[in-house]
C-alpha cells in the first residue's frame, strides 16, 4: 500500500501517542499498582519512583519512604503522616540526597539496610551486614527498626537522631541533634544539642569561623544554671505526657501537658530547641516549649560583626561603618566599609549603647578608667572594639573579634567601635536595620514567632549527577539534560545556586563571561598541565582564583565530569579547594582557590627564579611540614572522605604551597572514585606521570590507593634530597631511574649499620641545617613507599602517624643525637 489511508495514519499516530503517554505516566501507573507496606522483608526494597512505596506504622501516624527535598532530589526519611506538610523527623544521610530515578532503599540478604543512588553508589547503610536482620518495621512511636528472626532489635533509627527527638526516644552519650542549615533546607547546619563531657546537656554553635556554647547560659556555672554534673549516665527523654527529664537535672513541661498529643522536640535551623505539638484537625504545629526565650541569645546567628536586634522577632543588622557581607545571607555577617589603620592617630571610637558582642575578649581589666580602656584598645592593632562598664567596677573588655552581637536594654555597658578617624558618622543612626529589600530573606532566616514556624516545602535541593561513564551514552544524555534542567529551566539562577550551595559549600557554576572578565581574557597564565592551562583571576567578590581551562573537547568532557564529581564535595585543608566550574558550549573551566606560592617543584628543584614568581629556598622545617601536610591530604582522600579517592598523579607539580608554605594537593582531574569494599576499579587508561608511577601501572594489576603511596614515596625522597629522582641517569653502562640508584644505595648503607649514612642523601644546599632524625625517618618511609610489592608499602594513615611521631622532636633539632655529624 503506497498511500496509507488517513485513518491508518491517524491510528499509527494515536498508537505512538498512547505509547508516549503510557511511557511518561509509567510512574503513575506503577504507583497505583503498589501499596504501602507495614514491613520490608529481607531481599526487598522501596523505590524512589513510586510515591506509595512506603512503610507505615501500624497506627498510620508515621510513614517512611523517599521524601522530596528538591527538584529530582530525595532523602530516605521518616515523617508524620498527618501533619500538613509531612514533617520529617529522621533522615538517612540528609547531606546527600539521591536521584528521583532509580534510587532505592533495600534490606539486603545479609541483613544490611542500604540506600543506593541511581548509579548504584551507596549513600547510606545501617552497618548491619551479617546481623541476619529479617525485616524493617516502623513502630507506632516513629522508630524504624531492623529485627532479627527472634524479634530482637538489630538496629533502630532512634539511635541516630537527625534534628528531632520523639517521645520515648532518649538522648544519650554520643548522640547529637544537629540543626538543618536553613529554613526549608535539610542539610546539616551549625547548631547541635548534646551531652557534653561534663554530663550537662548543651547547645553549641560550631560554624566556619567560631564555635561557641550558648545554652545553658554560658556566663553562669553549672549550678547557677540549675544543672548538676555528677550523674554520668547522660540520659534525657521526653515522655508521652510532654515532660522532659534529664540526668543533669534539666527538665521542662510542655505547656499542653497531657496524653494523646503528637509531639516532637526539634533543634531548629536558627539554633533554638523547640517542643512542638500537632493539632491533628489542621495538621499544623504549635510551640509548647522553647529553650531560648530570646532568640538573639543564640550564638552565631548574625555572623561576624553582625548584631541581632530583637524587636520582638530576631533581625540581623550592622553597626555604623559596617555593611552586609552578603545581603542574601545575613548569617555571613557584616564587614567594615573602610580599611582600619594600625596607627592610633588614624582611628577614633564610636559608642554603641546597649550592644554586646559575646566572647573574644583579648584583654579584661577591672577598676580602670574609660580613658585607660580606650588606650588599651587604641594601642593594640588587633583590637576592633572595647566594652566599658562604668557601674562601680570600671570593667574593660577589649575585643579581638566581634561575634554574637546582640542588642538588649539590659546590658549595663557601652561598646566602643574602632573606626577610621575621617569617617563622618553624624546624622546616621548607630545601628542600621538593614534595607527593606533584605526583609524577606531576613525573616526567613531568623524567625522567633510561631506562625512562621512551619517547615516549608521550598525546593532547595537539586540532584547532581556524580558519576561519569557508568551507563554510557544514555547517561551522558541524562546528565546533559539534568544540567540543562538544573540551570536553565529555573530561570532564576540564584535560587538554584542557593540550593546547590547548601549542599556543596559554595560550590557553584560560573558563566564563561564571568570567568573571562575575572581572568582579564585569560591574560595571566599560571601554568599548564596535562588537562589544560591555568590562569589567575579575580572574582567580583575579590576572591583570587585559579581558573583551569580544559582543552580537548571529547576527552575534556569526561575529565571535566570526573574532576567535578570528585572535588565538588571534598573539602580538606590540605587539598586545593574547588569553588566551581563553567560548562558553556564547548567551554569547560574549573575554578579553584588560588594558592600563593605555586608548586613544590619550582621551589625544590630550580635554583634561579624563573618567570614572575620569586622562589624561596625551602628550609628543613618547611620541607617537613610539606611532607606531613601532603601525607595528611592523601590520607584524607584514601581513608576519610565520603568515597575513597585515588589521586593517581601525585608529583611535586601537583603539590601547591600557600602563603605559609603549607601544602595543598591539586589536580584531581586524573583521580577516580574507587568503590568502597570493591575489588578495585578498572582504569580504562593509564594515568599519572613517568617517574612517579608505581610499577603496577605497567603490569595488569588492579589499581589501588597504593599507587599514590608509591608516588608519595618518590616525592618524599625528592624533598629530602632536593633532586629529581624521576630522571633517567646512566650509571656505568646501565641506564636507570635515579630513584632506583638512590634506593639501592640507601638500603646498602642502612643495612651496613652506618650511623652517618643519612648525610649522603640530604640536600647539600641545606648546609646541614636540618633535623637528622626526621630526615632519617623520611628516607625510611620513602623507601618503604616505593617497594615493588605494593603490599609492603604502608598506607597513608601509617605514613602520617610515623611522621607525626617525630614531629615532636622538631624543637630540639640541635640536640638530637645524630646532630654532631659534620659534613
Ligand atoms: C556506618 O558506618 C560508617 C563508617 O563507620 C559511618 O560513617 C555511618 O554513619 C554508619 N551508619 C550508621 C547508620 O550507623
Ligand atoms: C542519674 O540519672 C538517671 C537518668 O535520669 C537516673 O535514673 C538515676 O537515678 C540518676 N542517678 C543518680 C545517682 O541520681
Ligand atoms: C512538670 O509538671 C509536674 C506535674 O504537674 C510537676 O511535678 C513538675 O515539677 C513539673 N516540672 C517542671 C520542670 O516544671
Ligand atoms: C583597602 O585596602 C586595599 C589594599 O590594601 C585596597 O585595595 C582597598 O581599595 C582599600 N579599601 C578602601 C575602602 O579603602
Ligand atoms: C580601685 O582603685 C582604687 C585606686 O586606684 C582603689 O582605692 C580601690 O580599692 C580599687 N578597687 C578595687 C575593687 O580594686
Ligand atoms: C557630616 O555629615 C553631616 C550630615 O550628613 C553634615 O551635615 C556634616 O557637615 C558632615 N561633616 C563633615 C565634617 O563632613
TrEMBL record:
Residues 342-423 form the Apple domain. Residues 31-159 form the Bulb-type lectin domain. The keyword Transmembrane helix applies. This is Receptor-like serine/threonine-protein kinase. The chain crosses the membrane at residues 463-486. It comes from Cinnamomum micranthum f. kanehirae. Belongs to the protein kinase superfamily. Ser/Thr protein kinase family. Residues 520-804 form the Protein kinase domain. GO terms for biological process: recognition of pollen. It is a single-pass type I membrane protein.
Amino acid at each position: 500500500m503506497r498511500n496509507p489511508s488517513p485513518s491508518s495514519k491517524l491510528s499509527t499516530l494515536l498508537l505512538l501517542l498512547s505509547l508516549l503517554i503510557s511511557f511518561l505516566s509509567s510512574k503513575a501507573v506503577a504507583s497505583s499498582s503498589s501499596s504501602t507496606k507495614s514491613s520490608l522483608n529481607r531481599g526487598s526494597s522501596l523505590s524512589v519512583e513510586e510515591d506509595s512505596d512506603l512503610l507505615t506504622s501500624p497506627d498510620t501516624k508515621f510513614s517512611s519512604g523517599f521524601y522530596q527535598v528538591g527538584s529530582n532530589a530525595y532523602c530516605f526519611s521518616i515523617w508524620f503522616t498527618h501533619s500538613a506538610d509531612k514533617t520529617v523527623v529522621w533522615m538517612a544521610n540528609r547531606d546527600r540526597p539521591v536521584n528521583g530515578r532509580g534510587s532505592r532503599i533495600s534490606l539486603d540478604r545479609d541483613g544490611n539496610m542500604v540506600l543506593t543512588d541511581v548509579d548504584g553508589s551507596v549513600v547510606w547503610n545501617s552497618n548491619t551486614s551479617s546481623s541476619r536482620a529479617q525485616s524493617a518495621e516502623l513502630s507506632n512511636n516513629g522508630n524504624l527498626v531492623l529485627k532479627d528472626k527472634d524479634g530482637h532489635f538489630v538496629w533502630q533509627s532512634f539511635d541516630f537522631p537527625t534534628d528531632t527527638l520523639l517521645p520515648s526516644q532518649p538522648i544519650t552519650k554520643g548522640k547529637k541533634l544537629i540543626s538543618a542549615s536553613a529554613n526549608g533546607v535539610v542539610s546539616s547546619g551549625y547548631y547541635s544539642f548534646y551531652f557534653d563531657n561534663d554530663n550537662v546537656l548543651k547547645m553549641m554553635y560550631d560554624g566556619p569561623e567560631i564555635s561557641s556554647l550558648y545554652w545553658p547560659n554560658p556566663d553562669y556555672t553549672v549550678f547557677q544554671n540549675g544543672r548538676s554534673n555528677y550523674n554520668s549516665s547522660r540520659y534525657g527523654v521526653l515522655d508521652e505526657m510532654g515532660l522532659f527529664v534529664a540526668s543533669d537535672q534539666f527538665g521542662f513541661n510542655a505547656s499542653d501537658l497531657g496524653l494523646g498529643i503528637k509531639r516532637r522536640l526539634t533543634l531548629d535551623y536558627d539554633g533554638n530547641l523547640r517542643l512542638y505539638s500537632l493539632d491533628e484537625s489542621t495538621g499544623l504545629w504549635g510551640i509548647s516549649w522553647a529553650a531560648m526565650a530570646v532568640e538573639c541569645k543564640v550564638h552565631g546567628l548574625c555572623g561576624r560583626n553582625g548584631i541581632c536586634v530583637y524587636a520582638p522577632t530576631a533581625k540581623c543588622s550592622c553597626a555604623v561603618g559596617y555593611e552586609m557581607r552578603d545581603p542574601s545571607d545575613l548569617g555571613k555577617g557584616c564587614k567594615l566599609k573602610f580599611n582600619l589603620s594600625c596607627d592610633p592617630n588614624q582611628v577614633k571610637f564610636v559608642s554603641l549603647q546597649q550592644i554586646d558582642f559575646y566572647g573574644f575578649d583579648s584583654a579584661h581589666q577591672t577598676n580602670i578608667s574609660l580613658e585607660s580602656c580606650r588606650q588599651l584598645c587604641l594601642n593594640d592593632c588587633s583590637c576592633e572594639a572595647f566594652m566599658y562598664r562604668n557601674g562601680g567596677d570600671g570593667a574593660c573588655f577589649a575585643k579581638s573579634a566581634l561575634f554574637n552581637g546582640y542588642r538588649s536594654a539590659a546590658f549595663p555597658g557601652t561598646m566602643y567601635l574602632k573606626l577610621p578617624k575621617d569617617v563622618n558618622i553624624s546624622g546616621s543612626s548607630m545601628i542600621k536595620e538593614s534595607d527593606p529589600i533584605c526583609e524577606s530573606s531576613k525573616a526567613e532566616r531568623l524567625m522567633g514567632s510561631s506562625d512562621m514556624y512551619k517547615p516549608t516545602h521550598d525546593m532547595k535541593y537539586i540532584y547532581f549527577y556524580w558519576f561519569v561513564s557508568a551507563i554510557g551514552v544514555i547517561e551522558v544524555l541524562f546528565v546533559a539534560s539534568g544540567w540543562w534542567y538544573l540551570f536553565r529551566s529555573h530561570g532564576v539562577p540564584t535560587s538554584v545556586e542557593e540550593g546547590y550551595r547548601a549542599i556543596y559549600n559554595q560550590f557553584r557554576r560560573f558563566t564563561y563571561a564571568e570567568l573571562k572578565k575575572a581572568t582579564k581574557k585569560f591574560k595571566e597564565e599560571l601554568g599548564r598541565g596535562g588537562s589544560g592551562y591555568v590562569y589567575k583571576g579575580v572574582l567580583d567578590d575579590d576572591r583570587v582564583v585559579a581558573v583551569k581551562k580544559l582543552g580537548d573537547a571529547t576527552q575534556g568532557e569526561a575529565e571535566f565530569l570526573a574532576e567535578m564529581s570528585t572535588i565538588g564535595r571534598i573539602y580538606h585543608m590540605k587539598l586545593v579547594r574547588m569553588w566551581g566550574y563553567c560548562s558553556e558550549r564547548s567551554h569547560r573551566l574549573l575554578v579553584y582557590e588560588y594558592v600563593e606560592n605555586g608548586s613544590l617543584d619550582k621551589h625544590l628543584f630550580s635554583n634561579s627564579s624563573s618567570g614572575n614568581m620569586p622562589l624561596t629556598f625551602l628550609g628543613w622545617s618547611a620541607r617537613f611540614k610539606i611532607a606531613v601536610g601532603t601525607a595528611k591530604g592523601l590520607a584524607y582522600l584514601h581513608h576519610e572522605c565520603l568515597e575513597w579517592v585515588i589521586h593517581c598523579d601525585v608529583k611535586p607539580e601537583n603539590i601547591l604551597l600557600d602563603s605559609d608554605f603549607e601544602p595543598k594537593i591539586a589536580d584531581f582531574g586524573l583521580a577516580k572514585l574507587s568503590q568502597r569494599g570493591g575489588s578495585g576499579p578498572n582504569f580504562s587508561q593509564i594515568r599519572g606521570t613517568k617517574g612517579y608511577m608505581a610499577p603496577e601501572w605497567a603490569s595488569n594489576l588492579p589499581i589501588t590507593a597504593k599507587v599514590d603511596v608509591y608516588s608519595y614515596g618518590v616525592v618524599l625522597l625528592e624533598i629530602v634530597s632536593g633532586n629529581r629522582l624521576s630522571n633517567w641517569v646512566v650509571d656505568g653502562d646501565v641506564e636507570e631511574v635515579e630513584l632506583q640508584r638512590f634506593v639501592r644505595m640507601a638500603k646498602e648503607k642502612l643495612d651496613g649499620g652506618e650511623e652517618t649514612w643519612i648525610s649522603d642523601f640530604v640536600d647539600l644546599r641545606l648546609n646541614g641545617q636540618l633535623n637528622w632524625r626526621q630526615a632519617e625517618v623520611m628516607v625510611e618511609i620513602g623507601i618503604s613507599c616505593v617497594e615493588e610489592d605494593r603490599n609492603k608499602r604502608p598506607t597513608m594513615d601509617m605514613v602520617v602517624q610515623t611522621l607525626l611521631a617525630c614531629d615532636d622532636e622538631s624543637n630540639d633539632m640541635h640536640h638530637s643525637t645524630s646532630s654532631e655529624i659534620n659534613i
